[in-house]
Design goal:
Layout lengths: L1 E7 L5 H9 L4 E6 L13 E9 L2 E2 L1 H10 L6 E7 L8 H9 L4 E8 L20 H21 L1
Parallel strand pairs: 1-2, 1-3, 3-5, 5-6
Antiparallel strand pairs: 3-4
Helix pairs in contact: 1-4, 2-3
The structure holds flavin mononucleotide.
Flavin mononucleotide (FMN) binds next to helix 1, strand 3 and strand 5.
Length: 153
């Protein structure tokens, strides 16, 4: 099963750590949505969208990437990390997937070290996250996504 995960991870690389753990479980191509590239998502069996939460939602570049490049009907899943208040989480990207007739396989989220604004003064929140338990949970999530898709094939 060939999977692409389109992601944005800047603050502390928290989301990327989660994706790299998942990538140990199968053939995953990680696509940084801010990198200049030719994008062809048709060739993948399923597509993930991943982001840190910024201002209570997915980073806008990920949402726009889904709007532009997600092929209709592709199975999708979502991943995000957040400091404390996930807000709308994956809602915006899920709406795009729904509008394109894509089946949503699930979502994974966990806390991610956050030193934004005033949190910096107290040494940050969600320190140490994603931790080994978060990464184990992420790997398990991706195995379940894979198993679910293989059963359908
Ligand atoms: C500008 C900015 C805004 C943020 N907004 C939120 C937020 O609304 N809710 C929250 O729980 N965390 C918020 N965070 C914390 C990040 O979601 C968290 O640290 C996340 O793990 C960052 O992912 P990344 O390291 O992959 O970019 C914010 C961080 C930054 C830098």
């Amino acid at each position: 099963m060939k999977t692409a995960i389109c992601y944005y991870s800047r603050h502390h690389g928290n989301t990327l750590k989660v994706l790299e753990a998942m990538a140990q479980e199968g053939e995953i191509h990680l696509i940084d949505v801010t990198a200049r590239q030719t994008v062809q998502l048709m060739e993948y069996d399923c597509i993930g969208f991943a982001s840190g939460i910024y201002g209570f939602e997915f980073q806008k570049a990920v949402v726009e990437f889904a709007r532009q490049y997600l092929p209709a009907g592709k199975p999708v899943f979502f991943i995000y990390t957040y400091g404390g208040v996930k807000g709308t989480g994956s809602k915006a990207v899920a709406e795009i997937a729904n509008a394109k007739g894509c089946s949503i396989l699930g979502e994974f989220s966990c806390k991610g070290y956050d030193t934004f604004g005033p949190f910096k003064m107290v040494g940050g929140i969600a320190k140490g996250h994603p931790d080994t338990q978060d990464l184990d949970n992420a790997r398990r999530f991706f195995r379940q996504i894979q198993e679910g898709l293989e059963e359908k094939q």
